[in-house]
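Exercise: predict the structure of this protein bound to beta-D-glucopyranose.
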Amino acid sequence: MELSRRTVMAGAAAAGVTATTLGSATAHATGGGKKPVKELFGTLADGTRVHRWSLENGGTRLKVLSYGGVVQSLEIPDRRGRYANVSLGFDNLDDYVAKSPYFGALIGRYGNRIDQGRFTLDGRAYQLSVNDGANTLHGGAQGFDKRVWDVEPFTKGSDVGLYLYYTSVDGEMGYPGTLRTKVTYTLTRGGDWRIDYEATTDKATVVNLTSHVYWNLAGEGSGTVEDHELTIDASRYTPVDSGLIPTGELARVAGTPFDFRRAKTVGEDIRVAHQQVLYGQGFDHNWALDKGVTSRPEHIATLRDPRSGRTLRIATTEPGLQFYSGNFQDGTLVGTGGRVYRQGDALCLETQHFPDSPNQPSFPSTVLRPGRTYRSTTVHAFGS
Ligand code: BGC
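Solution:
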């Protein structure tokens, strides 16, 4: 459906037909990439200026901060062409610094949890910054989400985008090796948002980069996402202990609340008294994607808001997907549009390697060695 709509618009553009004459087919016109525009967003306590970049292409509008590579706003049209910002965030820098639960941020060096913040690599033990009870979450106390990235805009053919660079020094947050990271955000002429991650190191280390957008396809601040329909192409997931650290088992989803192989609303099984649902206070687990690690991004999940018709289709090279149903949103944050965020008002679909892989020899490896390049790609395709 989404493809045919784009084809219609491409044809319409060629014939010189304006979008409005097509009524509901206005969504996601093809092309129209504009040069990214930069503006000052705020200033950190140490005087560092943080900028916001605005990009638009193929009917998708994206605003990105140099702080944390944060997606501050992502607007897409509904089936009637009406735009909404479908990503949770704040309208000011201070809130991002003081209280953001990783809204829209780039996550590194290691997305998700590492047990006790400890691991051993090549016989050497490392202790990381611990910031989630006894464990390390999303890179430690000052992860990539709290760093200011160097941002360079680009236009390439009909694509527009940003290159984001950050170099993490040897020992930062306890991780070995100088890690040079480059993340490319591309808005394609079809309105897809693509993320390409690359990293190199000068010492053996572990890496697991991801993006932490909180999606609400009805629009941020509009209420619960329990009515969103979700499909995840995974027959297994990684059960966790009470600290949300994987037990090492790859359990079957069949017959459990974790079975999203066919479209199911987020709310349908979220109140099933399953031990794993209790541990997560909802869904906060890693699905082991059936496709595994792939050299090219392959489709793994679809999210749909039946009311607006907005859809998100995700393809990735990664073997895992952390589906987090916004369980720890507690009504204390005021979002971009001035509305309060409550439990379940958004969800995250984080493409990544499995949590705690450095301590789980049977999980796909997250080790990066000098001379090798870490590469990972995730594509978000929107429709309505
Ligand atoms: C994790 C949650 C965590 C949240 C922080 C998610 O990626 O899975 O457990 O609370 O990030 O905002």
